[in-house]
């Protein structure tokens, strides 16, 4: 049985429905990431798990026990906030010990626990400092220490990395992942950053307007998006979404001043064949369009090679992003770093048809 | 670019001199009354009558101060101001403490434990700041009479607490509005309830606004004359009313030096409060002003 069960949860503030019928299951030791644009309800969902907000209907269970009516302190849940929410008037040691003190733990025992948590997070030398004297990364560690020390059955993280600079963010991301691997505690993590979601989660729930768009492993979300929103939201650079017309077993994409580009498939998916002569949206990730040198990196499968005009070249170190135009859209391709082509010239591009997905242009639903 | 906005060296100096001249002029203007009071409070009465108000004393005497403190005629008793000074202290300390504590509580509830109608309640409390003293005199007299504390120090404390609550609530509400809600959530998760969140998290971070409120309340209540004159009887009369009685008593000669000394004595506590914590006052007012 799942450890954390979110069962048909709805939440409304007056007439506004913030969460609509959300059901998610997480196994013990799992890492659930809630991701979505701002206002999608992900933080509200986290707050209902924490008990800071009451849910309107539905049930949340931890280890089989319904926790809906328990006050936050009795849920045995710890939370790391976006601002870290360290008490400014207490030093680091007192901050970490506060939750234990509120639970009536004697001082000796508390000190031992704090020392242990501080050692794990390597913040022993900071225990006497005030939060105002700490750097962003140190505050993050203290906030994690405050959560860890209570030995909770569930950790909640509310966008904990969004206040850090880019480099530190990557470091702390690794640290959170390491902490998860070390302690094996179940984690629910909220972020609007899809890279964080991909790197951290064992399960990702993509939310939009209070509705779960897709729930699955990072690989499922990335390779097998259920609709246009998920396809567009996850991945950086974003998936190319190109309008195309279905002709027989191929799709035809318009090009300016040139003949249309036709991608011929051995067999189009069943749903797509029904769109004969009509428009569909073709989704191809940048790494599935590449140059001949990178072709070797692709797994064997159906490929199409075509000559395309490159409009812009963006070297990114490890790769080169070259931008061409198909179906009236800018299409980003990811080429080998030794590729030597130039803008406004034609180059041979290899399309990996194994990785192509199709969507209905009106509803945005995936066609399989 | 930066240089062009700076006046050239010569005009800069001139501007600065003009600026200081104006500042010094205003400082002198404001300090002059204090100077007159202090200088004349250490002169003999003869010297004041015969000489210049502005001149320094020829014969220095602290006799007027001693007179004002313990011997001068207040009303019919030659007690000096000292018993009334004590009265004022007995009134001000609890009134300031209670109104500040209640204001802090109100601010906490109005910002961190929002309830339906909280805005209306706050609006009404804000309204209290704009009610003139005179309007509440008669209803307040009725209330004090009904609960049987008319003419007592407790009665005055109640009046000042009720009247000050609007201001103290306003101060604390604006201060706490800028206090991060996540800290309150974190305290909830940590298991702190309503009171412990307040006493352990909010209050220890409220230093500046407590200072502001205490100064504000202290000066207002200490300097109040109307409520003291209206609601106190002879045993609970505050310093301000006693000073008035001292200055306006019509028996014998007018002892200006004693009056000056008495006036300085009456103003001393608020002066000390300002000197000790004035810089927090400005800082705290700013903190409240930026957000809220």
UniProtKB/TrEMBL annotation, chain B:
For whether the record's keyword set contains Protease, the answer is no
Q: Does the keyword Phosphoprotein apply?
A: no
Q: How does it sit in the membrane?
A: Multi-pass membrane protein
**Pfam entry (one):** BPD_transp_1
Gene Ontology cellular component terms for the protein in this record: plasma membrane
The protein's UniProt keywords, in alphabetical order, are: Membrane, Transmembrane, Transmembrane helix, Transport
Do you know which CDD domains this protein is assigned to? TM_PBP2 (cd06261)
Q: Name one GO biological process term.
A: transmembrane transport
Which family does the record claim for this protein? Belongs to the binding-protein-dependent transport system permease family.
Q: What is this protein called?
A: Carbohydrate ABC transporter permease
Natural source organism: Thalassospira lohafexi
**Organismal lineage:** Bacteria, Pseudomonadati, Pseudomonadota, Alphaproteobacteria, Rhodospirillales
């Amino acid at each position: 049985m799942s450890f954390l069960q979110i069962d048909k949860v709805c939440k409304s503030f007056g007439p506004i429905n913030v969460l609509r019928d959300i059901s998610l299951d997480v196994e013990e030791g799992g890492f659930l990431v809630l991701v979505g644009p701002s206002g999608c309800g992900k933080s509200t969902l986290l707050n209902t798990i924490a008990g800071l907000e009451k849910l309107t209907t539905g049930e949340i269970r931890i280890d089989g026990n319904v926790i809906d009516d328990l006050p936050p302190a009795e849920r045995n849940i710890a939370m790391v906030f976006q601002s870290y929410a360290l008490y400014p008037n207490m030093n680091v040691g007192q901050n970490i010990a506060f939750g234990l003190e509120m639970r009536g733990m004697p001082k000796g025992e508390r000190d031992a626990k704090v020392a242990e948590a501080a050692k794990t997070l390597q913040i022993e030398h900071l225990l006497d400092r005030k939060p105002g004297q700490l750097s962003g990364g140190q505050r993050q560690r203290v906030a994690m220490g405050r959560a860890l020390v209570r030995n909770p059955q569930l950790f909640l993280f509310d966008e904990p990395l969004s206040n850090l600079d880019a480099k530190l963010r990557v470091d702390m991301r690794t640290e959170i992942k390491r902490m998860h691997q070390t302690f094996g505690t179940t984690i629910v993590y909220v972020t609007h950053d899809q890279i964080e979601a991909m790197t951290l989660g064992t399960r990702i729930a993509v939310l939009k307007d209070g509705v779960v768009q897709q729930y699955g492993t990072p690989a499922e979300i990335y390779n097998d998006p259920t609709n246009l929103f998920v396809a567009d939201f996850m991945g950086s650079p974003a998936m190319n979404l190109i309008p195309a017309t279905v002709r027989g077993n191929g799709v035809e994409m318009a090009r300016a001043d040139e003949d249309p580009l036709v991608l011929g498939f051995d067999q189009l998916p069943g749903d797509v064949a029904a769109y004969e002569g009509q428009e569909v949206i073709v989704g191809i990730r940048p790494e599935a369009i590449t140059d001949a040198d990178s072709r070797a990196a692709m797994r064997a499968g159906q490929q199409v090679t075509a000559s395309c005009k490159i409009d812009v070249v963006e070297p990114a170190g490890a790769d080169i992003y070259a931008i061409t135009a198909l179906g009236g859209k800018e299409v980003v391709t990811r080429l080998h770093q030794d590729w030597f082509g130039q803008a406004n010239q034609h180059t041979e591009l290899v399309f990996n048809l194994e990785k192509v997905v199709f969507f209905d242009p009106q509803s945005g639903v995936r066609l399989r | 670019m930066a240089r062009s906005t700076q006046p050239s060296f010569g005009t800069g100096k001139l501007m600065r001199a003009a600026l200081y001249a104006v500042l010094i002029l205003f400082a002198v203007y404001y300090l002059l009354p204090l100077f007159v009071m202090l200088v004349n409070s250490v002169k003999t009465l003869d010297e004041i009558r015969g000489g210049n108000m502005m001149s320094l004393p020829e014969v220095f005497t602290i006799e007027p101060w001693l007179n004002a403190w313990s011997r001068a005629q207040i009303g019919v008793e030659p007690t000096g101001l000292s018993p009334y000074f004590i009265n004022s202290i007995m009134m001000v300390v609890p009134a300031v403490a209670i109104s500040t504590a209640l204001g802090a509580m109100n601010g906490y509830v109005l910002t961190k434990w929002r309830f339906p109608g909280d805005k209306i309640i706050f609006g009404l409390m804000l309204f209290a700041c704009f009610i003139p003293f005179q309007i509440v005199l008669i209803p307040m007299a009725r209330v004090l009479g009904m609960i049987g504390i008319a003419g007592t120090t407790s009665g005055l404390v109640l009046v000042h607490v009720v009247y000050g609550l609007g201001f103290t609530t306003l101060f604390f509400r604006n201060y706490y509005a800028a206090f991060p809600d996540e800290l309150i959530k974190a305290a909830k998760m940590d298991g702190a309830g309503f009171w412990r969140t307040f006493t352990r998290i909010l209050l220890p971070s409220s230093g500046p606004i407590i200072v502001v409120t205490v100064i504000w309340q202290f000066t207002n209540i200490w300097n109040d004359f109307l409520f003291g004159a209206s609601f106190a009887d002879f045993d609970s009369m505050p310093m301000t009313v006693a000073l008035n009685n001292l200055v306006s008593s019509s028996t014998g000669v007018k002892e200006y030096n004693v009056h000056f000394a008495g006036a300085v004595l009456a103003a001393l506590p608020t002066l000390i409060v300002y000197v000790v914590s004035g810089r927090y006052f400005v800082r705290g007012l700013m903190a409240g002003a930026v957000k809220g």
